[in-house]
Amino acid sequence: MNATPRWLTSEQKVAWDSFIRMQETLIGRLSRLVQADSQMSASDYIVLVSLTERGGGRMRFLDLAKLVEWEKSRMSHQVRRMTTRGLVAREECPDDGRGAFIVATPAGYKAIEEAAPVHVEHVRRLFIDALTQEELDTLARISNRVLAHMEKQPD
């Protein structure tokens, strides 16, 4: 770590503060809307979307935690809550006694199928509709650049 902090310039601070405020406001609003519309928490939604869109309905526990960038303990608590409500099930991995699969149940599929169309409309109304296609393309390039940069940095 450097002895002298590399403070942000005023322009950098404005960019950073604006980004954080937008991100926190958007995520907070979307989380409240998901809860109000579907009685699912934002965490429930993230897990079910990850399982159904990317995982084909089932994923190894650690792969799911990594995909959503959560610690193992947070994912464990979330899966326990969702299992209690019947949204997911935990299945032992036959070829690895220590591993487990998290599987979306029929109730989990029904919940995400009902919530997703309403959620995407909120995303469109609050975010997509505020930007031009060129701005969206630029934002995607910037986001991908930052993600690639972060992959090269120590955690």
Number of helices: 6
Name the overall outline.
Answer: globular
Percentage of residues in DSSP E strands = 5-15%
The helix content is 55-70%
- How far apart the termini lie comes to 14 Å
Biggest sheet layout: 3 strands, antiparallel
Physical arrangement of strands within the biggest beta sheet = 1-3-2
CATH architecture: Orthogonal Bundle
Structural class: mainly alpha
Q: What's the gyration radius in Å?
A: 19 Å
How many β-strands, per DSSP?
Answer: 3
The name of the CATH topology is: Arc Repressor Mutant, subunit A
Q: What would CATH call the homologous superfamily?
A: Winged helix-like DNA-binding domain superfamily/Winged helix DNA-binding domain
Summed over residues and divided by their number, the pLDDT gives a mean of: 93
Sketch the topology as an H/E string, one letter per element. HHEHHEEHH
CATH class term: Mainly Alpha
Low-confidence stretches: none
Domain count, please report it: 1
